[in-house]
Amino acid sequence: MRTFILLSTLLLAFTATATPASAAGVRMFVRHEVTDYAAWRKDYDAFQPTAKKMGVTSGVVYQSTDNPNDVTVTHDFKTLKSAKAFAESSELKTAMQNAGVKGAPQIWFAAMAPGATGKAGHVHMFVRHAVSDYAAWRKAYDGFDADRRKLGVTAQAVYRSKDDPNDVTVTHDFKSVAEAKAFADSADLKDAMKKAGVKGEPQIWFTTRAVK
Predict the structure, then answer these.
(1) CATH code of domain 26-111
(2) What is the pLDDT of residues 59-106, one digit of tens each?
(3) How far is CA 29 from CA 2, 103, 159, in A?
(4) How far is CA 144 from each of CA 50, 138, 193, rounded to the nearest angstrom?
(5) Is 123-209 a domain of CATH 3.40.50.720?
(6) pTM of this structure
(7) Residues of the chain with CATH 3.30.70.100
(8) 140 CB-side CA count, 13 A
(9) pLDDT per position as a tens digit, 131-155
């Protein structure tokens, strides 16, 4: 599983549990590496009022369990237009530069599919991959649910890209990093992905919700 170093977007961290995007809303994902998390977080928090004025309704920050400077941020918006305007804004680009973001950001926009759940305080595993056909993939994904539970998954959510419906992001929650990594490395998961029509190598990374 390769690690992608990506950029940041500074925003609003709310205290709710893994804030689900509303059915009519859009979730913007950002993954990036920062020079120093503490310095980045200070600038991120200072940028919150501006982010809110630009349409961010809620957000959550996650830190990688393998590298605390590998940060994933989610931001929710009412519309795709407002999300893309925020991502392309000079204000955000300047804020990211000042906050010590390294490299280019990976940013994508998605809507949450039905059936999402979430667990506060658990390890949050992100999976992003392309699939041949979402409907066929989703049927296989749902059919694998009992196996996922046996392998330690306590909650999950599925997101479809607003730009490509076959670009799918999935999150799974676990009680421990060891369980999450065992699941990711399992032959059961790899076989299920292959049968479901996953294309290429999936991006997989492990996080916990960041504390201030």
Answers:
(1) 3.30.70.100
(2) 999 999 999 999 999 999 999 999 999 999 999 999 999 999 999 999
(3) 18, 16, 10
(4) 42, 10, 10
(5) no
(6) 0.84
(7) 26-111, 123-209
(8) 18
(9) 999 999 999 999 999 999 999 999 9
